[in-house]
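User: Hey, quick favor. My workstation is busy. Could you predict this chain's structure for me?
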Amino acid sequence: MLTSLHAQVKFENPQINADSKFLFTVSHNLGGTIPYKTLFLADATKTEATKIITCFPERMEMLAGGSVLQVRNRYGSARYSVADSTLSWISREDSIPADAKAMLPQAVSPDGKWACFVKKTDAATGKLYLKNMSTLEEFLLNDKCDFDFDEVPAKWAGDGSVFVYEKAGNLYFGDPKAVYQKVQMDEEFRKIGEGTINCVTWASSKYLIYINRDLVYKISAKELYTRTLYSQMVGIGIVIGRLPLGFDGRKDKFWVNPFINQIVTINSNSVISSYRVNGTASSYLTSVYSKPFKDIKGSPVDYDVFFCTDGSQVLWVNLIGLEDGKRNSTVYRLSDELKELNRVENATHPLLSPDGRKVVFASQKLAYIYDLGSWLELGRLGGESVYSYVWGSNSLLYIGGESTVREWKLGENNRFANTGRVLFLSAAQAAFWKPNAENIVCAQSAGNKATFYDYDSFKNVWQASVEDTRTSFEYMKKAEVSVYAVQNAKYRVYTGLTDNKLFENALYIRNFAGSGTSYAVYPETVKPGDERKKIALVFDALDSADGLTHILAVLAGYNIKATFFLNGEFIRRYPLECKQIIESGHDCCSMYFSTADLTEKGFIINEEFIRRGLARNEDEFYAATGRELSLMWHAPFYKANREIKKAGEASGYRYVEAGRLALDTYTLEKAADGKKWYLGAKDLVKLYVDAAEPNMIIPINVGLSAGTRTDYLYEKLSLLIGDFLDLGYEFTLVRNIK
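Assistant: No problem, here it is.
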């Protein structure tokens, strides 16, 4: 659902009316972001007052107890008032964004009054803030925390009265009202214990569950101040049992039901365990199910667990197909065994309703709602691709699609209708001045060419045009006309060339008065600028596939194609994974047939030796996948001399050199011996970002064959990609790096 990586920012279809009001669209088709067109309304007499009249829902949040819908995208933040049916921008970019930037997450309180978020300060760190969503005031919680494009290190209680956040390896709680009134107790008296944000979850508004290694604590929200203040005497909470498997907050996750008698853990993204809580402090939790997850059709990416009112559990597993590389999801009933309920192709993440009884997700241009207990479909809403959704209440949803943002309500017989009410447009296929009504804007749906909407300039929203079939047909003909130069008695508006290579073109106005000058509507779009800087990611698969599923999932999320170098040992061990890589659309190249260091003494290296080794790798890859390797290679560990490289060239291969940056293979053991200097994954990201330069190649190991690390660079892949997108880089294949 994301874009290709080679297009730019483009102005399209300017049209002016007799009152010198003009329309135009801006299309963004940049790698790593969602492609869509944004519709603008402007005045030729004062071009600084351009107005955005579509609002694409890259992210949505519910605020003010369900009375305000917040929509965020590359242009800023807008809010829709449910009571007034009006849409207004609370913040927006003054210029046209030229670069692809990832949308930052927000942890919004369930009552919609507060939000925690991280402001990025460098490549891997930021500052954690609490924001009052009404006044927009911000309060600093942590001046240095790990930055992440996917999650915020904070979790809210169900009623929004208290939150927990992570700071320097410890967990603390906060009261948003106390923060706002500046009467919050010092942090040392609000410490819960050691751990990451994954070590806590709210069972309900009343109880927080905290896991420290293998001990499971229940902490009453009412007793948080007392417990933390006198923790040395009374303890942080009540121990309700022990886990048979230790819990690592860096890699593991857990869920607990509202009655706090069931706990499900996922260890190392592999082992699924379901426990029954007995309530005895000294005893282990009763194991109901505990097995590594296996699916012959795919590799697990991540999981969600939902608890039903009847005591059963629903397990949602997102996978990447081994045979086709496609993303799909499998839904199971979890008890003492896994019972498959459903398979969904290319599904979005499920979102639980406030009462915990229903889930919504999207797939194949349809949004679905299922009853959690029975796993029966309660409704489906089609017509366009869905990019975001949020619950307004237990019986109301807001669905953000490629064309519209719609309200979807629960109808009769406890089912959701198959239609939704359009609130405003996300994007438009085309727009024009409505015939016989020069100041009314009409837009053609981005999802259905036969559907048109009229713009309400007072409320900044849209209503469906009520026209007969003939008029709709005339509208379609008008919408299909690409108007690149339109004029009235005073002005002409047109698109033209630009020296700024970040833009495909620029938007100009010619004023017929006086000397008849022409000028750019956005001056920054015509300032001379270089082409977008390119960078390539290289993934080295020697003999381990530990990080492969995560890598493929992140690349798919950003729609980035990368280059994989596959060693013969990897191909022999993981033939299905090799097919998974190439079917995902990535470029597969050779890392020779053996894992040996070709520069070590004992090898007699000549052209015949290299040619045979490369040929054998080609044959084994073809046997595994039915496809050919690309004619690029590098030696294992990037260790090759001039003779080795020349032998590869004689076999028709281009040698790719990136060894000086292959730093994620350095292990703690090598560091202890003083042989290698060691950097953690976060520091490696900083190093690469600080050293960023055009045509850079960054090698990332798919998995270590020996030795240990505290973390792995592939675990920070999303952060690395997001950082380079923020710097204005475009990701490309190694073959395009010269």
